[in-house]
UniProtKB/TrEMBL annotation:
The active site is at E328, H329. Pfam families: Histidinol_dh (PF00815). Its cofactor is Zn(2+). Pathway: Amino-acid biosynthesis; L-histidine biosynthesis; L-histidine from 5-phospho-alpha-D-ribose 1-diphosphate: step 9/9. GO terms for molecular function: histidinol dehydrogenase activity; NAD binding; zinc ion binding. Substrate binds at S239, Q261, H264, H329, D362, E416, H421. This is Histidinol dehydrogenase. Keywords: Amino-acid biosynthesis, Histidine biosynthesis, Metal-binding, NAD, Oxidoreductase, Zinc. The keyword DNA damage does not apply. It is an enzyme of class 1 (oxidoreductase). The lineage of its organism: Bacteria, Pseudomonadati, Pseudomonadota, Gammaproteobacteria, Thiotrichales. It catalyses: L-histidinol + 2 NAD(+) + H2O = L-histidine + 2 NADH + 3 H(+). Belongs to the histidinol dehydrogenase family. Its EC number is 1.1.1.23.
Length: 432
């Protein structure tokens, strides 16, 4: 059961403890295990992938790649209503990411120097879509839609299959609508290894995206540190939410938002910070009531052990705590929530008011749901179209331009003792 704490009565150590994320155990074992998987895939390619899929997923595959026939068959397994729903979601997510697509910027200083920044799509990208305890169709859309908007030429998807070797139909349909290049029946660290290094079947990519369990997260970290591996999107850890609520908040809404987050996994975390003891008590009771009938009750009960309800004196204090925690999801279920936007410094995504359920952001508002967790919101942003692109700086210098700035650059090169740099400018000035 989730516990209630009065912030003012807690020691500094206890306050720090409440804001600490659940810690994964056996880190050394995890690192070594992932390293072994990466090495096996690098050395043995498809053979290693098939062996790991049999060992970890309990299925013996003949083919790693999803066939066009399997994609076609998926449409026959799903209602037209659900297909239309997926299309609607893709349109909304695509529209948002089209608006957010970066545009060429120009700086003309009118002295013969013009600098530009142009954006080009990353050519080959790999999308990891979890499929363990829940097939995350929404994650496929959140990754594939911006990749398509960015203009990535090759988009490869890896996602685990079931015991019969089948991928969840809606994932295949969403991937098909988003025009991904290929889909592979792979999960876990071995999927990340395949995308990072390539195999006989799986294409090597430039950058890997998508959330996953601790093995996937560690694998992404390791391949990003390998010059022969691949870049990654952002650090990913277990999902989390922090709700700031006042006395007018509906305890049913607040409890539902907390449980919606902790049902992700036993290492997820939910915090409520409120100025009302009465609301705290009501939310605690409502959490108990909603948990008792929850489909993923066991997962929720476990994750609530590392969650908390915190009572503070003022909303200002609540906002300060929220900024320190830097949550993946921050819900401001308070009166005049708009007035507090400028006070928010650290959060992956912010949801304003009583009707902005975080679950809406997971699926359909348009904004991306791949967000920084574990406090990384202090330095990282949520996934966006720009993450599927790279910027190229272009510098155009005329004769007048080098006349105007050449001597400055030469002196700076001289200060740094880089005479070849200085000469590269001087030789041009002498030619004018």
């Amino acid at each position: 059961m989730i516990e209630i704490y009065n912030w003012q009565e807690l020691s500094r150590a206890k306050q720090t403890e409440l804001l600490s994320r659940p810690v994964s155990t056996n880190k050394a074992s995890l690192v070594a295990g992932v390293r072994n998987i990466l090495n096996e895939v690098k050395q043995n390619g498809d053979k290693a992938l098939l062996e790991f899929t049999s060992k970890f997923d309990g299925v013996d595959l003949d083919n790693i790649e999803v066939s066009q026939n399997e994609i076609k068959q998926a449409y026959s397994l799903v209602s037209q209503d659900d297909i239309n729903l997926i299309k609607n979601s893709i349109v909304r997510i695509s529209n948002y990411h089209e608006v957010m697509k970066p545009k060429t910027t120009v700086c003309d200083t009118n002295d013969g120097v013009v600098c530009k920044k142009v954006y080009k799509p990353i050519e080959k990208v790999g999308l990891y879509v979890p499929g363990g305890s829940a097939p995350l169709v929404s994650t496929l859309i959140m990754l594939a839609a911006p990749a398509q908007i960015a203009g990535c030429k090759e988009v490869y998807v890896t996602t685990p299959c079931d015991k019969e070797g089948n991928v969840y139909p809606l994932i295949l349909i969403a991937a098909d609508i988003c025009k991904v290049s290929k889909i592979y029946k792979l999960g876990g660290a071995q999927a990340i290894a395949a995308l990072a290094y390539g195999t006989e079947t799986v294409s090597k990519v430039n950058k890997i995206y998508g959330p996953g369990n601790s093995w996937v997260t560690e694998a992404k970290q390791q391949v990003s540190n390998d010059s022969h591996g691949a870049a990654i999107d952002l650090p990913a850890r277990p999902s989390e939410v922090l709700v700031v609520a006042d006395e007018v908040a509906d305890p049913r809404f607040v409890a539902a938002d907390l449980l919606a987050q902790v049902e992700h996994g036993t290492d997820s975390q939910a915090l409520l910070i409120t100025t009302s003891q009465i609301l705290a008590d009501k939310v605690r009771n409502e959490v108990s009531k909603q948990t008792s009938i929850a489909q993923r009750k066991a997962i929720i009960e476990k994750s609530l052990e590392s969650s908390a309800i915190i009572v503070v004196d003022t909303l200002s204090q609540a906002i300060n705590i929220a900024n320190e925690y830097a949550s993946e999801h921050l819900i401001l279920n308070i009166e005049n929530a708009d007035n507090y936007i400028d006070s928010i410094e650290n959060a992956g995504a912010v949801f304003l008011g009583p009707w902005a359920a975080e679950a809406l952001g997971d699926y359909i508002t348009g904004s991306n749901h791949v967000l920084p967790t574990y406090g990384y919101a202090k330095a990282y942003s949520g996934l966006a179209t720009i993450d599927f692109m790279k910027a190229i700086s272009i510098q155009n210098v005329s004769k007048q331009g080098i006349k105007n700035i050449g001597q400055i650059a030469m002196r700076l090169a001289d200060i740094e003792g880089l005479k070849a740099h200085e000469n590269a400018i001087a030789i041009r000035l002498e030619s004018l």
